[in-house]
Amino acid sequence: MEKIAILILAHKSILQVGRFIDQFQDDLFDIYIHFDKKFEFSSGELKLLNKRNVVILPDSQRILTNWGDITLVLATIQLLKASAKSNYFFYVLCSGQDLLIKKSTDLYQTLSENRNANFNTLMPSSKLFNKRNQVPYFQCMRASKGSAYFLRNIWKYLTGGRKHTFPFLISRFYKEHAFRFGYQWFAYNREAVTYILDYLHSHPEFLNFFKNKLVPDECFFQTLLWTNPKFKDSFLPGITYAVFPPKKSSSPKVFTETDFGELMSCGKFIARKFDIDVDQNIIEKVIMATKP
Q1: pLDDT 10s digits, 12-21
Q2: In 60-125, which ranges are E strands?
Q3: Helix 190-202 vs helix 71-83: crossing angle, to nearest 10
Q4: Which of 29, 85, 97, 112 could pair covalently with 273 via S-S, beta carbons 3.0-4.6 A apart?
C-alpha cells in the first residue's frame, strides 16, 4: 500500500514527539524527524522513537534553527530530500509539538482522495508581508521578541517604513519575481515535492535570495509552487489548526484541557501547539479520542 511521509521539525521533548508519532498507523505512514541541532539528547532517549517506520535524520543533516530566518527552510529541505528518496504520495510537514486531532486513517483517506491538491493556507498579499523580502535583515534582527524586535522595526523605518521601501534598495531579483505567503505547515503531493527539489537544484539563486530575508518559511515553498501555473490552482486550506493570541504573537497558543471541545470540532486533522510541561492531560485526552 502507498504511504504518506510525515515530516517533523522537533526541538524539545522526545517523550512528546514519541506520543505524536504513535498516533500514526505504521502501515500507512512513515515518519521523518529533524531534531534542531541545539537540542541535546542521549541515545537512550532516542530508543523511545525506535519504530520500524521512523527515520531520524543524522547529525550531519541537522540544522541549528532560529525563528525568522532561512534555517527553518533548510531543515525542511533536509526532510524533503530524505523522504523523497522513497515514493510517497504526500509529504506532511509538522512540528514536534503537534498532535493528530482526527484518526490517522481519516487523514490518509482525505489525502488519498485529493492527490492533485496541495494543502497550505495562503495569506492575502500585503505591503507588510512584501517588506520581508524587499530588504536584507541582519541576524540580530531575526528573532520573535526581545531586542531583535526593536532593531527590526528601526531598520524598517530607516529603509522606508513598515509597509514601504525606498526603491533604490529593492533588488532586481525581487522586482522580477512574484511572491506568495502562507502558513509554514503544509501537505504537498509527490509531484509538487519533486518539482521543489528539482527547481532548487537547478536554481540555487532562489535559495540564496532568501538567506537574509525575514520569515522565509512563510514564503519560500509557497512562492515556488504558486508561481508555477501547474500548481497555482492546486492549493486547498491547510490541515493544521493553530490559534494565535489577539496581540498578533508570532507564537501560537499552547492548548490546554479546556480547549478539548474546540480541537475536536475545528475540522482540521492536526493541531499545534501542545506542551507536555504545561498540560499533559490534554495530550492524553486527544490521543485517546483519536485512537483507531
Answers
A1: 999 999 999 9
A2: 90-95, 98-100, 118-119, 122-123
A3: 120
A4: 97
Superfamily of 4-122+182-240 according to CATH: Spore Coat Polysaccharide Biosynthesis Protein SpsA; Chain A (3.90.550.10)
pLDDT tens-place string over residues 229-249: 999 999 999 999 999 887 655
Domain ranges of the chain: 4-122+182-240, 127-175
Supply 92's cell numbers. Answer: 506532511
Cell 505504521 belongs to residue: 26
- Report helix, strand and coil shares of the chain as percent, to nearest 5: 40, 15, 45
Measure the CA–CA gap between 88 and 108, rounded to whole angstroms: 12
A 10 A CB-CB count for 2 gives: 12
Stated length of the chain: 292
Phi/psi region, residue 150 (left: phi>0; alpha: psi -120 to 50; beta: rest), is: alpha
pTM recorded for the entire structure: 0.95
